[in-house]
Request: fold
Amino acid sequence: MKISVIGCGFLGAVYAAGMASLGHDVVGIDIDEQKLERLKAGHSPFFEPGLDELLLEAQNRGSLRFSSDFADTASSTMHFLCVGTPQLDGSLAADVSYVDAAVRSLVPYLEASDVIVGKSTVPVGTAARLSPLVLDAGAELIWNPEFLREGHAVKDTLHPDRLIYGVRDETDAAAAIAALDEAYAPMLDEGTVRMIMNYQTAELVKNSANSFLATKISFINAMAELCDAAGADVTELAEALGLDERIGRKFLNAGLGFGGGCLPKDIRALQAQAEELGVDSAVNFLNDIDHINQSQRSRLVELTRRICGPLEGMRLVVLGAAFKPDSDDVRDSPALDVAQQLQDAGADVVVCDPHATGNAKLRFPDLAYTPELAEAVAGADALLLLTEWKQFRQLDPYQLSSQVARTVMIDGRNVLDPTKWRNAGWTFGALGRP
Ligand code: UGA
Reply:
């Protein structure tokens, strides 16, 4: 099948390579020439495990091209919208202008029975608003939200948990549904559940899924604060809670909380959405979820102050800059927020991250960075593990002791074994653990 993918960011670049690996003939469209140059050379413009291999394979086979010209979508019969919907400046709502612009740019090249597939996370009403424009061109619009996680994007794209098709009318859209089934045949063949629903429900599935995940994280972080006050251990609490399969263990990792380009923006967009629908009180709790999440960052700074004493002149090493491991995305990164707060309080901060220092420098140019662990830890007064990269989870307290000035470890992600570190002579601190 001939497919175009509009927008080659975190979602679109993976989608383009993923669809090509399923045997389709794909063209990826983006306006950013620099990004396109990297993609054409077979390199992902961001760090995503497995993506470079997929890009190279597809381009060597001749099944993946990139272009900045919408005219190159003309020969495709299916068009995936993968553009961003960031938070609007000065508002909680999402900015859908890139989605609107992408549809308007596609329309002149649409042919009868083409299908536009919306992947971007959008407010309710977006698909219904855009559908007439698409129908006028003889094409059909399906809203098919994407649930991939950064750091696992290749696997999540090729083996999704579920496929959600939002349609205007199941009978009228039958041909488009069949075409999308054909595009996704390998996923459907492996038994992936596919659900058909109206546009509004499909749009809400995505936003409410992210809001639920954010709620789970803030719930366990609120429990961590209770644990601190009570002398309890939140990691054991989470283990015990998670054994109840109605609750489940996933997304109950307490610590510094969530960041990135999705969860923070989506809980805010859902609040803006509810207000627009006149039911803002229904999701008022999301304001608390956001507040709990933000407060983890100041709690970590306070914990550091409690353990280290006055921060002025203290040489602190922040391990991690990315908002999560296996990603170089630093959008709303809790680690960088804390690093900046510590530096503002007078500490001498060095941030160490294996892949994200380049992006971090652009957002927080006043901080010092190194990707080299040995260079970062030399002479440190305290180490703060704020993004749980594998190499940080595997740190050996005995080996590190001789490299630092003071043996202090603050585990902002609750991934280290306190007993092991204390036995090696370290002062150990964490959120929600005695
Ligand atoms: C999230 C969703 O998980 C995806 O399903 C969705 O497709 C995506 O947003 C999106 O809307 O595009 P992502 O932002 O890549 O994916 O990252 P997550 O794995 O959800 O992690 C988000 C944040 O929560 C990270 O900062 C992570 O460190 C934090 N987190 C996660 C915790 O603090 N505790 C946990 O238990 C889990």
Summary: The mean pLDDT is 97. The pocket of uridine-5'-diphosphate-glucuronic acid is lined by residues 121, 146-150, 210, 213, 217, 251-253, 255, 257-260, 262-263, 323-324 (CB under 6 Å).
